[in-house]
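User: Show me a protein chain along with its predicted structure.
Assistant: Here is one chain, sequence first, then C-alpha cells.
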Amino acid sequence: MRAPSDLAALIRRHFPALDPRRLEALPHVRWGGDSDAVLVDGALVFRFPRSEEVARGLAVEVCLLPDLAERAPLPIPRFRYVARDGATGAPLFVGYPLIPGAPLTAARFAALAGDPAAVERAAAGLGGFLAALHRFPVARARACGVPAPGHPPREEVAARHAALRERVYPVLARDERAYLDRLFAAYLGDPAHFGWPPAVCHGDLTSDHILAADKSALTGIIDFGDLRIGDPAGDFVWRFEYGDAFFRRVLAHYAAPVGDPDAFARVVGFRWRLMGVSQLGYGLATGSAADVEEGRAALRARLRDYPV
C-alpha cells in the first residue's frame, strides 16, 4: 500500500478544499485488495486503484452507482469526490461518505439468530437490494461498460470448465480434478439450472461486503469493483455463511425471476463450491503463493464437506 502521506497529498492536490489530517488504512478482509483504501478523518472513504485494469472498473462504478443508489433500498457508496485525469477525464480515485456498520460475519449473524425480527429485517433488506440490483436495466449497465458474457449461459459455463482444465487442472490432484468434473457435469446436465435471465451482479457479495449494525437492519452494501452481467445466483453465495433458513427468507423478499427455487439453490451451491478454485486460479495468474494455498485449502474443504 502507498504511504498515507502520499495518498493525503493526492487528495489535497485534486481537492484543495479538503485537508486530510488522519488516514487509517482499511484492510481487505478476503483475497484481492486491488485498491488502496483509507478512512479519512473518520468520515470519508477514499479508494485508489492499484492498476489500469482496476481503474477501468472504477470508471464503471462511477457511471453506474449513482443510478443504482436511487433504486436500491440499502445505502451503497455515493461518490462525493471523483478525481479525474486531466487529459482523458478517466477517474483516478474516488471518495465517499463512510457507510456505518461492520461486516455481517457469520459469527455476527449467529448472534442475531435469537431475534427473529432482526433476522427478518436483514432478509427483507438483502432481498430488496438484490432484487433492485438484478432488475437494473442491462442496457444501461452495458452503456457504463459493465462486462457482459459473449455467449449463452450454458456455453459460458462450459467455456469456464475448459479454461480451468487448461490453466488450473495441471496443478490439481487427481481427486480435485475429478470433483470439479463431476460438479460441472451435474450443473451442465440439468436445463433447470438455466431458468432465469442474466442480470447485473455485484460479483463479490460475501459477508465482508454486507454491512449491519448490531442487532439492527442492514446498513449498506460496499465494494462494487467486480460488477458484471451474469448469473444472479452468484450473488447468493453468502447462503453458506448465514444458512439455508435465511437464504429462503431472502428469496421470499426477492422480486426477481429465479425459475425453480430448488434449482436456483443448487446453482448457488455450484457457484460457492467454485470460489476456492477461482482464488487458486487468481493466485496462479498473479504469482501469489498465498492465494494458491488458500484457494487449494478451500477446494479441499468443499471436496470433503460437500461431495458431488
